[in-house]
Specification:
The chain is α/β, with parallel strands linked by helices. Helices cover 43% and strands 11% of the residues. Helix 1 crosses helix 4. The longest helix is centred in the first third of the chain and has 15 residues. It is globular, with a radius of gyration of 17 Å.
């Protein structure tokens, strides 16, 4: 029997990832270079190690990560001036709260980033447990975020369902022994997801109650 729902943040609750892709792509264009989507998606759900290596390989002597990050961050902030949660997110949180499920968040991002945006969206109060990259040694695809979330919630992995939008997030949840529902966004929808337990176009496709029924079968 399921007792908890665990949500990713970036790309799942708030589509920061499409805006980040556009921001980095525009930044690379400034340097007369490109950022194909297949290179960007490798960093989704995890850190920017591979992305930074791509920048270095492309730009050579022009590579300045502080300058790249500064340009991209400014563009991203402009694109995210009026943030809106993805469709159905608030409905899922309301349903989880109403039906007595524990609600947690497991994100590779920093706690400051996650709580700031959840506050802006008016969703922070739904979460009783927030685990971020600040709390673990290894972020997704390592299972550490989910393992810690389960530990803090005081439940077994089989008593939770995770909601993710990326391959790194899916792998992290599965490795932790948690069933995973995939809800891709525009930059992750073409990825080759495997071994997930359910895939939705958005949380409007199916109610949380029906998702949980499926997960409990």
């Amino acid at each position: 029997m399921l007792k908890a729902v665990i949500f990713d943040f970036d790309g799942l609750i708030l589509d920061t990832e499409t805006a980040w892709y556009e921001a980095y792509k525009e930044t690379m264009a400034f340097y007369k270079s490109d950022l194909p989507l297949e290179h960007f998606v490798k960093c989704i759900g995890t850190d920017n190690t591979e992305l930074n290596q791509y920048f270095k390989d492309q730009l050579g002597e022009s590579y300045n990560i502080e300058e790249i990050e500064s340009r991209a961050k400014n563009l991203h902030q402009e694109k995210m001036k009026t943030p809106q949660a993805r469709e159905g997110v608030k409905d899922y949180l309301e349903a989880a709260k109403k039906n007595g499920y524990k609600i947690a968040l497991a994100s590779s991002s920093t706690k400051e980033w996650v709580t700031h945006h959840l506050g802006e969206l008016g969703l922070l109060h739904y979460f009783e447990v927030i685990i971020t990259g600040d709390d673990v040694d290894k972020v997704k695809p390592a299972p550490d975020l989910y393992v810690l979330a389960i530990e803090v919630l005081g439940i077994q992995p089989t008593e939770a369902v995770a909601f993710e939008d990326s391959l790194n997030g899916l792998q992290a949840a599965l490795t932790a022994g948690i069933k995973c529902v995939i809800v891709p966004n525009p930059v992750t929808e073409a990825l080759a997801f495997e071994n997930h337990h359910l895939r939705l176009r958005s949380m409007m496709d199916m109610s949380l109650t029906d998702v949980i029924k499926l997960m409990e079968q």
